[in-house]
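Field log, afternoon session.

UNIT: design team B
ACTIVITY: writing a sequence onto a fixed backbone
BACKBONE:
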């Protein structure tokens, strides 16, 4: 099959997002402020505005026992689970199945703050990456979501304001095999998560209101999503 028109953009952005996500908070530029902590979860943001719009880049790191990076990316990527964990979702459509690891989504989100309703149009790509640092270490899995244009879905024509986002979920699984040579169980696996996002909420919303929403919503999202995956996988064979 010929290359899809989006493939070059997808391949370039995925590589760029993954290399950024693998940098520690200290390495990828100054100005990261820790704004939320909960157990193993640390959430950082940078205060940035584009054309007067708050687009605060966000970087969260978390460690969750008992699930793999492949499982976390699988439940984040697959549309059939999204209504179970994305509570702000009003409607989700898969407009195009570009390949088995690349989908085009159109989503409308519930109206949350005293501004208008939002929608998002983005491609989503899931990929296993070679673990080039640690040869025999487990692989790294990533999902990248990036806003895109589609002539049949022009932004800001209907009731919704278009959100523009780039999101990267990067996961690395650590396996600590049991001493007695027993088979690996979920007690022996740990997933190190890096979640990066830059979201331009579009339209106009007061910076103070937006920042309050980010601060409230993002920690909830990561906790809710990882709890969902833990619960979904606990009685299933491990998906390495
Ligand atoms: C909070 C803010 C950054 C402005 C925001 C507001 C809204 C609109 C609805 C909403 C959600 C939460 C709070 C306020 N409004 C949606 C999103 C959003 C949408 C999608 C994705 S995704 O990673 O593609 C997962 C698939 O859905 C992540 C974030 C973000």
């Amino acid at each position: 099959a010929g290359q899809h028109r989006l493939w070059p953009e997808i391949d370039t952005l995925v590589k760029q997002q993954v290399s950024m996500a693998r940098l520690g908070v200290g390495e990828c530029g100054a100005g990261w402020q820790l704004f939320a902590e909960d157990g193993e979860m640390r959430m950082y943001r940078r205060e940035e505005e584009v054309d007067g719009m708050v687009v605060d880049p966000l970087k969260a790191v978390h460690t969750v026992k008992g699930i793999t990076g492949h499982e976390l990316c699988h439940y984040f990527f697959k549309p059939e689970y999204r209504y179970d964990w994305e509570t702000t979702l009003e409607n989700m459509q898969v407009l195009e199945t570009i390949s088995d690891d690349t989908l085009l989504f159109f989503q409308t989100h519930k109206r949350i703050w005293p501004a208008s309703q939002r929608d998002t149009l983005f491609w989503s790509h899931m990929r296993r990456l070679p673990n080039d640092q640690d040869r025999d270490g487990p692989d790294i899995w990533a999902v990248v979501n990036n806003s895109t244009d589609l002539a049949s879905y022009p932004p800001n024509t209907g009731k919704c304001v278009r959100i523009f986002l780039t999101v990267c979920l990067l996961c690395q699984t650590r396996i600590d095999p049991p001493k007695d040579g027993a088979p690996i169980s979920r007690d022996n696996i740990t997933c190190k998560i890096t979640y990066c996002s830059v979201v331009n909420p579009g339209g106009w919303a007061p910076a103070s209101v937006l920042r309050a929403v980010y601060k409230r919503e993002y920690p909830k999202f990561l906790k809710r999503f990882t709890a969902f995956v833990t619960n979904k996988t606990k009685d299933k064979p491990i998906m390495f």
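LOG NOTE: DSSP finds four helices and eleven strands in the chain.
NEXT ACTIVITY: expression trials, pending approval
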